[in-house]
Automatic annotation (TrEMBL):
Domain HTH cro/C1-type: 18-76
Organism: Phytohabitans houttuyneae
CDD domains registered for this protein in UniProt: HTH_XRE
GO MF, one example: DNA binding
Gene3D superfamilies linked: lambda repressor-like DNA-binding domains (1.10.260.40)
Protein name as catalogued: Transcriptional regulator
Pfam families registered for this protein in UniProt: DUF5753, HTH_31
Length: 292
C-alpha cells in the first residue's frame, strides 16, 4: 500500500504532483513565489524535494493551484505527512547526505541492479568484511563511535535481503572484487575466505543474482566506476541512478537519458559476465588459490 512506502518515495511523489499542478495552471515558479510572498528558492526546494513541506504551506499551494477535490487533497496531505519522516535520518551524522537519500529509495525498490569494480557490495558483505573495510577506508582521526555507527547502518541495510517482499537484486562484480583480500591485516585471507563463502550463500537466494566479469574480458564500461540502478513497482516513480566515488555521491532521477545509458551498459555487462549459475564454481576457483 502507498502508506507503507518509504518517506523518501512519498516526498518524491508529492514534489512531482505539486510541480505538475503548478504547470497545469500555467504559473511559473517565480509567479507562485510572488503570489504567496515566498522566496523563489523556497518554491524550488519544495519542488525538488530538498525540504519537507508544512501543512500550512501545502494548503497555500493547494489554494493557489485551485485544487479542491477531497480525495486529491487528502492524498497530497498524506504524502506530506509521511514525507516528513526520515527512515535513515538517525545515521545522517555518519553517512553522506546523498547516501541517506539513496537508502530511502532502495528500501522501496522492486528491482536493484548494481555493478561493483573494487569491493563487495554493502548488501552482500559479512560483518567481518565490512568492519575491516570501513576501518581501512576511514579518514584519519575517525572515532570508534562513528565507525561502529556506520557498521550498524550497514548491518541494518542487509535486512532488505531477508524481507518477504525483497526486490529482485542483480549484482555484477569485476573479478578484482573477489581477488582483492580485505582483512584485519595484510596477507591474512581469513576474512576474505569467509566473505567468498558468504557470497555463495547469498547467490543461492531466490531474489539474488551474482555475476562476475573475468579479467580476461579486458576493459569495459564498469571500469569507469561502481553504480546502482533502482526500479520501482509504481509507474509514477522514475528509475534512479546512484553513483558513488571517493569524492562525492550522486543520486539522480531526473536525467532519463543518463539513466538509460547506465541501464543499457548494465545489460551489456551481463553479456560478458559469468552466468549466475557459475558463481559457486568461479568462487571455488578463487578459494583454491588462497592459503588456509
Amino acid at each position: 500500500m502507498d502508506r507503507d512506502l518509504d518517506p523518501t518515495v512519498q516526498r518524491r511523489r508529492l514534489q512531482v504532483a505539486l510541480r505538475e499542478a503548478r504547470i497545469a495552471t500555467g504559473l511559473t515558479q517565480r509567479e507562485v513565489a510572488e503570489a504567496l510572498d515566498w522566496s523563489l528558492s523556497k518554491v524550488i526546494r519544495i519542488e525538488t524535494g530538498q525540504v519537507s513541506i508544512s501543512m500550512t504551506d501545502l494548503r497555500a499551494l493547494l489554494d493557489q493551484y485551485e485544487i479542491n477535490d477531497p480525495k486529491q487533497t487528502a492524498d497530497l496531505r498524506r504524502m506530506a505527512q509521511a514525507g516528513k519522516k526520515q527512515t535513515w535520518s538517525n545515521y545522517k551524522d555518519v553517512l553522506a547526505r546523498e547516501f541517506v537519500i539513496y537508502l530511502g529509495y532502495e528500501s522501496a525498490a522492486s528491482i536493484l541492479r548494481q555493478f561493483e569494480s573494487t569491493y563487495v557490495p554493502g548488501l552482500l558483505q559479512t560483518e567481518e568484511y565490512m568492519r575491516a573495510l570501513i576501518k581501512t577506508l576511514a579518514d584519519p582521526g575517525t572515532s570508534d563511535r562513528v565507525i561502529e555507527r556506520q557498521i550498524e547502518a550497514r548491518l541494518r541495510r542487509r535486512s532488505l535481503l531477508q524481507r518477504a517482499d525483497s526486490p529482485q537484486m542483480f549484482f555484477i562484480l569485476d573479478e578484482a572484487v573477489v581477488r582483492r583480500w580485505v582483512g584485519t591485516q595484510p596477507g591474512d585471507p581469513k576474512v576474505m575466505r569467509q566473505q567468498l563463502r558468504w557470497l555463495k550463500e547469498m547467490g543461492s537466494l531466490p531474489a539474488v543474482s551474482i555475476q562476475i566479469i573475468p579479467f580476461t574480458q579486458g576493459a569495459h564500461f564498469g571500469t569507469k566506476g561502481p553504480f546502482v540502478l533502482l526500479e520501482f513497482p509504481d509507474a509514477r516513480d522514475d528509475d534512479l541512478l546512484f553513483l558513488e566515488n571517493s569524492r562525492r555521491n550522486v543520486v539522480t532521477r531526473d536525467d532519463a537519458d543518463e539513466i538509460e545509458v547506465y541501464k543499457s551498459a548494465f545489460f551489456d555487462l551481463e553479456k560478458i559476465a559469468t552466468q549466475a549459475s557459475e558463481l559457486d564454481a568461479f568462487l571455488d576457483g578463487v578459494l583454491d588459490t588462497m592459503p588456509g
